[in-house]
Amino acid sequence: MNKVYQSAAALVLGLVxxxxxxxxxxxxxxxxxAPVAEMKQAFRDLWVGHIFWVRHVVxxxxxxx
Length: 65
Prior knowledge:
Distance between the termini: 15 Å
Largest sheet: none
Radius of gyration: 17 Å
Oligomer: single chain
Helix content: over 70%
Strand content: under 5%
Shape: elongated
């Protein structure tokens, strides 16, 4: 049970650390909206995939599989 608490604590600390990094730097000069939108969508897809696999690993770890 202690491992579960340690894993949960690490997950919470990681998420709290990531919320502090949520800012958008100001770009210098003009940006093209199409490539920026494509890049944002690509990063969003990567992030969603990462969240899916992390949840999958945590669920399997919790079920001792």
